[in-house]
Amino acid sequence: MSIKAIVTDIEGTTTSISFVADTLFPYAKARIQQFVLDNAERPDVEQEISAVRAEAGEPGASLERVGEILVNWIEQDLKITPLKTLQGMIWRHGYESGQLKGHLYQEVAAVLRSWKQQGLSLNVYSSGSEAAQVLLFGYSEAGDLTALFDHFFDTRIGGKRDAASYERIKNTLQLPGAEILFLSDVVAELDAAHSAGLVTMALDRECIGDGFGAHPHVTSFLQIDLDHLA
Question: Are residues 146 and 210 in the same domain?
């Protein structure tokens, strides 16, 4: 079988970890408490505030307390859906105002465009919310790339280290695992995808050289040869 679809992680794969850790997270952390206070009456924000209270087990938490919880989650780098959704709302303003520009490794945009021209289905799977993914690729350093992608999968489909999540992705793409290539820099994610039958490739952006177990690894999208994958 040949590869018909690619599912790519973002952080450490298409985009530097430092952009997420040193730019996006601090940007949201500095603004999230005030954002909650200023926008609590918006239905979409109110829904996420309720989800934060439920997740934290504090149904009566004040807005100030909700803000504290969110900052604490950011500091712990927790992958919690309402946090990711609220971060995405804050990042939207940053991108639209020009304060933020989505980082991509130098070769990524050209390779993605090449794969699309070859008829491949391109998809993203990240812990960041769908909205945050769309913003990063929509306001990327290489321009708006969102039209290249068929799906933006986030934690609503399941955790990235859970094989069942990749089963759901296979069902959505309506392809067997052997026709889907998953790209990531995290071994546990690659293991989960492999367990679901997907073809895996590790991105070794820091040129570690090993530590990826049985997964083949490359340092750049340019090194991925779709015609010679197991």
Answer: yes
Structure tokens at 193: 């995808």
**Cross-strand bridge partners of residue 143:** 140
Given 54, 77, 96, the domain boundary residue is 96
Q: What is the DSSP code string of 89-157?
A: HHHHHHHHTTS--B---TTHHHHHHHHHHTT-EEEEE-SS-HHHHHHHHHTBTTB--GGGEEEEE-GGG
| 174 and 145 within one domain | yes
Residue 230: pLDDT over 70: no
Q: Give the number of residues written for the chain.
A: 230
106, with CB counted inside 10 A (0-12, 13-18, 19+), is exposed
Distance CA 70, CA 67 (A): 5
Lookup result for tokens 């989960």 = 192
Whole-Å CA distances, 203 to 14, 45, 105, 171, 214: 9, 35, 12, 25, 13
| Same-domain status, 86 and 138 | no
How far is residue 49's CA from residue 34's CA, in Å, rounded to a whole number? Answer: 13
Same domain, 37 and 124: no
Q: What is the per-residue pLDDT across 35-79, written as a single tens digit (0 to 9) for each?
A: 999 999 999 999 999 999 999 999 999 999 999 999 999 999 898
Mark which of 37, 69, 96 sits at the end of a domain.
Answer: 96
The count of structural domains within the chain is 2
DSSP conformation letters of 50-65? HHHHHHHT-TT--HHH
Please report, for the domain that includes residue 81, its CATH number.
1.10.720
